[in-house]
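Lab channel / #folding
Pinned by the channel admin:
"Please post every new chain as: sequence first, then the structure tokens as a reply. Keep commentary short and put observations after the output so the thread stays searchable."

First post following the new format, from NK:
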Amino acid sequence: MRKNKHIDKYPNRWAVVGTCIQQATKLNATQKEAENILIKIATNQKSEVITHGRDGKVLEMNSYVNHPRNAKG
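Reply from TO:
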């Protein structure tokens, strides 16, 4: 099971949050700072990054999972 990572808006901050975690892993002043940190984590853990806007709606989803290019099927 993949562990998706989220960027969510907290009061006055942007938070890096795991899917099953109720508490923010790290709070950042800007969404871009949170995104840069999360890309490093997601690349290392081979997970997906889901970015939410101020209204909570999903803005963007990026996968950092290794997908084989020559997969049969």
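NK: The helical segments are 31-45.
TO: also worth noting, The first helix runs from residue 31 to 45.
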